Amino acid sequence: MDTYLVAAFTATGIYVLLTLGLMLQFGFAGLINFGHVAFFAIGAYVSAILSLHGVPVLVSMAAAVILAAMAALPVGLLAIRLREDYLAIAMLAFAETVRISLAAEQWLTGGINGLTGIPRPFFSPGIGRADNLTYLAFVLLMDVAAVLLIFRIVRSPFGRLVRAIRDDENAVQALGKDPVRFKVVVFVLGSAFGGLAGALQAHYVTFISPDQFTASVTFYVWIAMILGGAERISGAIVGALLLMMFLEATRFISDVVPWISPSDMASVRLAAVGLALIVCTVYFPHGVVVRAARR
Amino acid sequence: MSLVVDGVSKAFGGLQVLDAVSFSAPTHERTGIVGPNGAGKSTLFACISGFIRLDRGAVHFESHDLTQATPVSAARWGLVRTFQVPRPYRHMTVRDNLLAAAPSQSGERLRNLFLAPRQVRREEAAIRQRAEEVLGFLRLQSLANQQASELSGGQLKLLELGRVLMTKPKLIMLDEPFAGVHPVLIEQLCTHMTSLNEQGIGCVVIEHNLGALAELVSRLIVLDRGKIIADGSPSAVLSDPNVGAAYVGRPQ
Amino acid sequence: MTAFYINLAIGGLVQGLIIALAALAINLVFAVGRFANAATGDYVTVGAYAGIAAQAVGFTSTLAQGLAAALVTAVLVPAVYLLVFRPLAGRPAATFMIASVGVGFFLRYTIAFFVGHDQYTFLRPTVRALQWEGIRMLPIDLWLSGLAVLAVAAVFCILFLTSAGRRLRAVADNPELARTSGIDVGNSMMLLWVLVGFLSGVGGMIVGIKTVVVPDIGWNILLPAFAAAILGGVGNLPGALIAGLLLGVVQELSSPIVGFVYKQAIAFGVLVLVLAVRPQGLFGARKAVR
Question: What is the CATH number of the domain that holds B215?
Answer without folding.
Answer: 3.40.50.300
